[in-house]
Design goal:
This protein is an all-alpha fold. It is built from 5 helices and no strands. The protein has a single domain, classed as Methane Monooxygenase Hydroxylase, Chain G, domain 1 (Up-down Bundle).
């Protein structure tokens, strides 16, 4: 907000001021060309005016750059905090249940695939925070640079933990589904063998 207001103020001031300076320069030139008795004084005042105007333009430009840098830094901290919060929230959403049978385990597996797709959308935000931190850390020194690095490290660490936990759960669900499939296959085979045994025992014995 402050940055936008100053940009508007700077633009208007530069435009109006330049018109006024140009008009006074033209008047000074006209007086000098007409051979005014105070030519030297007029020329001196003209030079002083242009110098003061150049100083004012430089001051406005410096102020504009400072506000832009401050806005950029503020936006980075805001984005980093928001990304960190989203990553931590996703970590809390990761369930521990793996399912009581094959059907529920496979359902959990499908849910986890959707979950992984959701967290992948966060990777772009994390990468942006990391890139911005790298760029801003070069422009700042001391406590601000240290705070930039701390924010980036907090986001990167939380993201690594989230991905690690997500991958661990994916492996656990794969193992669980494989186990339930194996147990189902064992049960089906045992049932089949029981059936064969019953058929054999039910046949007439030779006389």
């Amino acid at each position: 907000m402050l940055r936008e207001k100053f940009r508007e103020f700077s633009r208007d001031t530069s435009s109006i001021g330049q018109e006024r300076v140009d008009a006074l320069n033209a008047l000074a030139d006209a007086l000098i060309a007409a051979g005014h008795s105070e030519n030297a004084t007029v020329a001196e005042w003209k030079d002083g005016l242009n110098e003061a105007w150049a100083d004012l333009l430089e001051l406005m430009d410096t102020r504009s750059q400072m506000l832009a840098a401050s806005y950029e830094l503020h936006r980075f901290f805001h984005d980093a905090r928001e990304t960190l919060e989203q990553v931590r929230h996703k970590r809390k959403q990761l369930p521990e249940e793996v399912g009581r049978d094959l059907n529920t385990a496979e359902a959990m597996q499908r849910m986890h695939s959707a979950y992984e797709h959701d967290i992948q959308a966060l990777s772009a935000q994390v990468r942006q925070v990391q890139e911005e931190a790298g760029r801003l850390a070069k422009a700042y020194a001391g406590e601000k640079a240290a705070e930039i690095r701390r924010q980036e490290q907090a986001v990167s660490q939380a993201w690594a933990e989230l991905r690690g936990c997500s991958q661990g759960r994916r492996r656990l669900l794969l193992d669980t589904v494989d186990e339930f499939r194996f147990l189902r296959a064992v049960r089906d085979l045992l049932l089949w063998m029981d059936g064969v045994r019953l058929q054999i025992e039910g046949q007439e014995r030779p006389r």
